[in-house]
Amino acid sequence: SPPGLLLLTSFLLRVEEGHASPTRLVCDNRLIQKYIGEAKDMEKRVGQCQALPALSCPVVLPLVDFSLQQWKSKSNETKRREILCDLALLVDAVAGAQGQVTQECGVKQLSQLYQHANSFLLLLQTFSWEAGPWEPGCSARSTEQTHITSIFLTYRQLVQGKLRFFFHDLARDLCK
């Protein structure tokens, strides 16, 4: 079974067991460390693909850098929505890049990245929140890129940054 499917299944099983609660997912810090490791591995593997051409049509990637001080002042719902916007933009960028890449190594890595990013997107959409379900149509800060490696860099930075801190913040509230 593809790794993205396994990731989604493990997420959904945890969500199902906890009645759509992120508790079981965020309380085990080893999980986010595992996802960070996978993001680094994917970034490394795509860097090893031979002569990946630049994309003829640039993809729009979210700018995922953030100020920790500003991040801490946001509500968990605001953080979740911001990450959802970033993930939606990233998933679209990966899909756009997939349509332009023909080299087998690049296709394989983009497919894996799509599965992982889409799994996080689906997961965050299924959490139960007071504010109701997420609706698309957000405006994340973004940039256009033509290098495939920048898509993987953005994903790693998102998982290592916003997602890791978001899970940490949720754990503080949920894992007593």
TrEMBL record:
<dbReference type="GO" id="GO:0005125">
    <property type="term" value="F:cytokine activity"/>
</dbReference>
<dbReference type="GO" id="GO:1902035">
    <property type="term" value="P:positive regulation of hematopoietic stem cell proliferation"/>
</dbReference>
<dbReference type="GO" id="GO:0005576">
    <property type="term" value="C:extracellular region"/>
</dbReference>
<keyword id="KW-1015">Disulfide bond</keyword>
<keyword id="KW-0325">Glycoprotein</keyword>
<comment type="similarity">
    <text>Belongs to the EPO/TPO family.</text>
</comment>
<dbReference type="InterPro" id="IPR009079">
    <property type="entry name" value="4_helix_cytokine-like_core"/>
</dbReference>
<dbReference type="Pfam" id="PF00758">
    <property type="entry name" value="EPO_TPO"/>
</dbReference>
<dbReference type="InterPro" id="IPR003978">
    <property type="entry name" value="Thrombopoietin"/>
</dbReference>
<feature type="signal peptide">
    <location>
        <begin position="1"/>
        <end position="20"/>
    </location>
</feature>
<keyword id="KW-0372">Hormone</keyword>
<dbReference type="InterPro" id="IPR019767">
    <property type="entry name" value="EPO/TPO_CS"/>
</dbReference>
<keyword id="KW-0964">Secreted</keyword>
<dbReference type="InterPro" id="IPR001323">
    <property type="entry name" value="EPO_TPO"/>
</dbReference>
<dbReference type="GO" id="GO:0038163">
    <property type="term" value="P:thrombopoietin-mediated signaling pathway"/>
</dbReference>
<keyword id="KW-0732">Signal</keyword>
<dbReference type="GO" id="GO:0005179">
    <property type="term" value="F:hormone activity"/>
</dbReference>
<dbReference type="GO" id="GO:0008283">
    <property type="term" value="P:cell population proliferation"/>
</dbReference>
<protein>
    <submittedName>
        <fullName>TPO protein</fullName>
    </submittedName>
</protein>
<dbReference type="GO" id="GO:0070374">
    <property type="term" value="P:positive regulation of ERK1 and ERK2 cascade"/>
</dbReference>
